[in-house]
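Appendix B, example 12.
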Amino acid sequence: MSALTVLVGVAVIGLLFWRITWTPEWTILTGNERARLEICRTVCLKRAWRVRASLRVLLRDKSPAVRIAAVEALNRRPDVRARLSADAAVLVSAPEPDVRARALEYLLSGAGDDWKRWAERAAAELADPEFRHSHPELTRAYVQTLVQHGDSSVVGWVLDLLERDPEQQLEPLRPATAATELARPLRERFLALLRSGSERARSFAIASLTAIDGAMRGYAAEDWVSPSGVAAGAIDSSELLTRFTVEAEWAFDIRPNFEIDVHDGVECLYLAEGAGGFMSWLQRENSTVDIGTGRFTFALEKDGNYQVWLRCWLENKCGNSTGMQIDGNEIGMFSDSEDVFRTWHWQLASPGIHLTAGRHTFDLMAFEDGVFVDKFVVLPAEEKFNLENPPPLSPLFDASLPSSLSFTAEMQHQLRGTTQKLTVWVRRNTEGVRQGRVKLTVPPPFEVLEGNEADAVFAPGVPVARSTFLVRVPPNAVAGEVEARAEFVVNGKTAAVGTVFLGVQFDWWTTGPLTSGQPRCDALMRQTDLQPAELADGWSRYPANGYDRYRRLNFEMAYGQSSGKSIFLYTEIDVAQEGDYLSLLTMDDAGPIFIDGRRVAGRSTGEALGEGLLMMQPCHLTAGRHRVFTWVWQSPADDPVGPDADRHTYNNWVFKWLLRASRHAIAPGIRGLLVPASPATGNVPPRQS
């Protein structure tokens, strides 16, 4: 055999080996956790036999995060469901609660004749309040499954929860409000809940009673004593529609972090904080603290295929997607290859979806921030959409839903000594509501300036009106979160109630960016605690221009573009009552959080997955004052080129940390204190105890 033949053979073998190392199968066998997570995102695009083989291994992965991502990938390939359902079923017995919850949610979504089996298993898990509060998506899937199968027990189950658990989140229970025929026999229980339940429970009772009676009748129990006789689900509009345009800010129900604001000269609905980052493809509750929706209802005159268009403004390739559902079914997601950035333009969401005559719901779902939606259009699929002449605007009044309130804050967490505008938006449910008064209540340390009541007056044909308030935080205020409450009153009667979380930033002190590998940076990385006296050695208060409106410390806003850097932070908190709390952390890229030298949250640099993964960790805290020390590392990635060049770095360098009683329940007893200054750090206002 000649040397040339040997060389050719070696080259061929080398080429084959190189090709093999680029396959999903090789990565599954040899890759680290991040690589296997990435395979979950891409393998569902392969041929069915490769999807089956790969997911069968990934569903048994040692990493809980990979198993959850594998279930998500399986959910995107219904054609392989039958062959892998048994593998997914094994996960309902996994030791990790998050894995069990995601597996059960998947199995419920397409259970067929097995739905009762998985519903019973889900009910057993959801009986644990801690599990239920941590897995709202499974709660919603369970309720939705029972509603779809006409199981009358679902309404009683929901009522039992609301009667015994004042902290129960309402969003996962919302599908039950559409089950009017199942709920009608329990109308008196809803009325009793309205009389004596918590404020959350009362708002759910009102939504259910409105759906049962087909009209909103008030917020007091006496308003609902006798049924009105209006047909349930009645749409209050002049006619059923075949084509229409609706402004996005006219959504009937806006949940954080969607907000109404003006962008590039257009009033629109925008996502104040989305998933983004490496894990945004999961499109799920674990992608950020608040996953929002903008919900619309509409009624069609006849069955048919319909196209859906959105007029939108997209920030960049990492701010270019939003989810869309009609009646709970996904209808589209924007495509990278067709995006037009930083200009208002029409984008096709669905070329044709079959819809029956009658009532439907349309949801905008939170994926990535940097997405602004001006309006959307529905029209028959066979018609040509004229971008310059869209169908007429419709306010989509719906008397079977209560009027609603939403909020737009300039800063979700405010700085001490500042004043901001807080806008309360009123969405009326009928054209008969023409004006009213909005009353705002914000607990201390916030102060409402220039009065806490304002008029809300609706323009003809426009279903939303606004009232704007000035909210101030005193210079020496302690930090923390509060729940602000607004009430819309018409003719002396409450017509809508809404709440929003506002907060005051912790008093963070920092070293500023330090280069990884330098002695000071490496020494601080080895520490797990910091004493206040050490702040004299090159520490200063974190700059005010480094906070963004989404509660985050945005280090590139404060210090400019950085790469291969670490920043160190210190603050102090006071805990009023010993107990178990929940740490909610998003960061880009990685780092730990220590309280009094004990690590309570974070991830290593090898686990850096971008900001799009919300890290939730239980945290037991004793009463009293505590020291908080943390650092955030940013990878030394090269600057992007091409379409991403405007982003400067691939990952935003940001940090957000909240301590709450549960994910959607604040902990009023946790307060951020003003850090006392040493002589070397300059004058600082006195600490407030």
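The chain has four domains: 32-224, 244-380, 404-503, 509-681. Residues 32-224 form a domain with the Leucine-rich Repeat Variant fold (CATH 1.25.10).
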